[in-house]
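queue> pop job 88
queue> type: inverse folding (structure -> sequence)
queue> payload:
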């Protein structure tokens, strides 16, 4: 048994298809199938149930996959440890960000990170919070930028604060509510308020704010991005809640949208870094935290 065999097993467990797993591992399908068979013979148990519609993991296979992931993480940590001892600020960094942060934060931080850490190779990945946490826990990502708190318990993970971000009401200038210099939760007509689709943490933050207002149902329209919501507001179809950074970086010329601040207590979210507590890269992550926080204060 070798580490490559475990890579084959993990690929099969995730792809549920020999051809796709073989393509992912850059080997032929017969090669992958033969190595899995040898692994089963070595262990003396059946790991894969093969049938014409695909494959299933046996109970022993499920357990083997769990241990294989732990081994893969340990190998990754050994490689990271070696890189750290050579140079803690070199090597690769796989950074994950949620869609309601990445398009607004990345333009601010990419250049400073590249300048401050010239020997660091940065790989970016955008996904929703639960997907990013899964990738972090399986060692496919190293560091996340998330809106906190999250529903996940963050067991085994650590976090570093970056900045707090206020929410504004985004509404068409023709609406009466935009004539106010600031608004209270009770001013919101939540039936006109459109939010992101299920799965976006920003939706959960917004719902918490709505619960403090009149308790009305929210608008039926949902979107997969803040920019889609912004266009709907521009068309005077809905109102929405917009994070401060997204509001500041609006590129729409001659916009008819007005962003109205809330009275205290101002609704906001905290943005922070999340990483595996067992990592060997605390020094790097702390330095990146300081760089990003500095960019956001500027």
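queue> result:
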């Amino acid at each position: 048994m070798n580490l490559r065999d475990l890579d084959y097993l993990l690929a099969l467990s995730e792809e549920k298809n020999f051809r796709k797993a073989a393509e992912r591992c850059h080997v032929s399908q017969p090669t992958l199938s033969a190595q899995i068979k040898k692994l089963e013979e070595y262990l003396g148990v059946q790991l894969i149930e093969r049938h014409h519609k695909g494959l299933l993991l046996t109970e022993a296979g499920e357990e083997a996959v769990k241990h294989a992931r732990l081994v893969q993480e340990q190998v990754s940590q050994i490689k990271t440890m070696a890189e750290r001892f050579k140079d803690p600020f070199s090597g690769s960094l796989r950074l994950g960000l949620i869609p309601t942060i990445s398009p607004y934060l990345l333009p601010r931080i990419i250049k400073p990170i590249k300048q401050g850490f010239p020997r660091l190779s940065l790989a970016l990945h955008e996904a929703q919070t639960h997907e990013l946490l899964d990738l972090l826990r399986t060692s496919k990502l190293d560091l996340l930028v998330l809106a906190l708190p999250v529903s996940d318990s963050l067991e085994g993970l650590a976090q570093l604060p970056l900045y707090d971000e206020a929410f504004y009401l985004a509404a068409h200038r023709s609406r009466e509510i935009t004539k106010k210099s600031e608004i209270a939760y009770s001013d919101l007509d939540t039936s006109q308020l459109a939010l992101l689709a299920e799965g976006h943490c920003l939706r959960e933050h917004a719902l918490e704010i709505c619960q403090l207002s009149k308790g009305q149902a929210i608008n039926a329209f949902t979107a997969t991005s803040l920019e889609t919501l912004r266009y709907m507001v521009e068309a005077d179809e809905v109102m929405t809640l917009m994070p401060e950074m997204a509001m500041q970086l609006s590129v729409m010329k001659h916009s008819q949208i007005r962003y109205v601040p809330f009275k205290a207590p101002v609704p906001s979210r905290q943005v922070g870094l999340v990483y595996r507590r067992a990592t060997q890269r605390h020094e790097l992550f702390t330095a990146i935290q300081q760089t990003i926080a500095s960019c956001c204060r500027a």
